[in-house]
Amino acid sequence: MRSDSSRHTAIIGAGIAGLACARALNAAGLPVILFDKARGPGGRMSSKRLPDATLELGAQFFSIKEATFRREVAEWRKAGCIAPWPTSLWSADGGSWQRHEDDLERLCGQPRMSAVTRHLADGLEVVADTRIERLEGSAGEWQLVDLRGERHGPFARVVISAPSPQAHALVAPHDATLAAACEAVIQRPCWSAWALFEAPLPALPGVDDDWQAVRLNDPRLRFVTRNQLKPGRSEQGESLSLLANLAWSEARLEDSPETIVEALLEAFQQALPAGIQLPAPSALGAHRWRYAQPDVFAGGTAVNLDYRRSASGLALCGDGWRGPRVEDAWLSGHHLGEALVADAA
Ligand SMILES: Cc1cc2nc3c(=O)[nH]c(=O)nc-3n(C[C@H](O)[C@H](O)[C@H](O)COP(=O)(O)OP(=O)(O)OC[C@H]3O[C@@H](n4cnc5c(N)ncnc54)[C@H](O)[C@@H]3O)c2cc1C
Q: Is residue 139's pLDDT more than 90?
């Protein structure tokens, strides 16, 4: 690592929160390097690419509440990496389907959700495939040690944007206050299944033929989306994402993916109007998100800050510090980045 690296900020996690923080630092001319254990940036906004289809198993869309995020999203729109979706959203309860109508604008990445995080990562230094196992050092002189035993640093500051249990493992040996903050934020798990079909789903009576997403009132399954109807994916065939309820996922955390996808497909079959049969799937799978969604009532919002930091130069951001949505994660990272820039001024 270069000798001037002691001025750098290291960010562990290149999901949307880590990237938002990095961009705020970068925009102010402060050097920053991101590390992620995955093959690329994205985290829970990444997309799964199969030979015949691209699917999202994490965030399906995002919405906007805050003006700061609205301004950012306008930039993404200009860059062409997002589009409105879903525009045909339904609710299903006991076989009865109703159009879901509200004033919320919903958007997704195009041609895949990860287009947003790829766009944000553009021009930033992202070290992928690098799981940070531990931190060494002290204030202003932090070293990152990865799974292979390689050292990175020294860094003046380390931002950890990983979900709170993973952040806890990194900060606990160095900072009792940040560790206690992590313990107060519970991240709940979620199973996400996917199913490809050679034939399209049959038409449903009274429902748009090209319905895009449905919320379900079922203890197993909460949301189903049709990936081929997301912007920029018209080439792929019928491809569903099936998101499980959190309590159901918690109770089945150690089940096999095969059992999970079978149960979620059965739940979806039961949510279809009477007499409608799902075609036979051609490929199936399921992904377990161990830390899918923060339970913000457990602690994160009690202190009115959407990030945490300490005098040691360690800081925490991510959805756990604000709320369970893409916007929350972005705002958390962005606000932390702004605070670090103000410190450096
Ligand atoms: C199934 C599901 C559905 C969702 N649906 C929606 C939705 O429809 N709308 C919405 O707004 N939000 C949704 N969300 C929530 C949204 O995806 C998240 O709030 C947001 O993406 C979190 O971003 P983040 O940057 O805080 O965390 P993450 O995206 O989890 O980023 C953390 C990063 O840290 C990396 N990391 C962790 N530990 C280490 C380590 N030791 N070393 C290196 N790297 C590490 C991970 O690889 C990851 O890339 C959904 C989430 C899930 C799981």
A: no
- Are the C-beta atoms of residues 313 and 200 closer than 8 Å to each other? no
Range scoring the smallest mean pLDDT among 13-22, 177-186, 291-300: 291-300
Residues 10-33 have a mean pLDDT of 97
Closest residue by CA, ligand 1 atom 50:
59
Query: 307: Cβ below 6 Å to ligand 1?
Result: no
96 Cα–ligand 1 center, Å: 33
- C-alpha–C-alpha distance, residues 107 and 60, integer Å: 9
Q: Which ligand 1 atom sits nearest the alpha carbon of residue 42? A: 49
Q: Using CA atoms, how far apart are residues 22 and 14, in angstroms rounded to an integer?
A: 9
Residues 6+ apart with CB under 8 A from 78: none
Q: Give pLDDT, residue 300.
A: 45
**If DSSP codes are grouped into helix, strand and coil, which group holds residue 93?**
strand
**Which residue's alpha carbon is nearest to atom 35 within ligand 1?**
13
- pLDDT tens for residues 175-198? 999 999 999 999 999 999 999 999
pLDDT tens-digit profile of 213-255?
999 999 999 999 999 999 999 899 999 999 999 999 999 999 9
Q: CATH code for 3-344?
A: 3.50.50.60
CA distance 68 to 78: 16
Q: Ligand 1 centre and the CA of 20: distance in Å? A: 13
Is the distance from the beta carbon of residue 12 to the nearest atom of ligand 1 less than 6 Å?
Answer: yes
**pLDDT, tens digit, for every residue of 300-327?**
444 567 999 999 999 999 999 999 999 9
To 5 degrees, how large is the angle CA 170–CA 176–CA 177? 105
Cβ 35 under 6 angstroms from ligand 1: yes
Contact indicator for 119, 81 with CB cutoff of 8 Å = yes
Q: Is pLDDT of 21 > 70?
A: yes
Domain boundaries, the chain: 3-344
Ligand 1: does its nearest atom lie under 6 Å from the Cβ of 131? yes
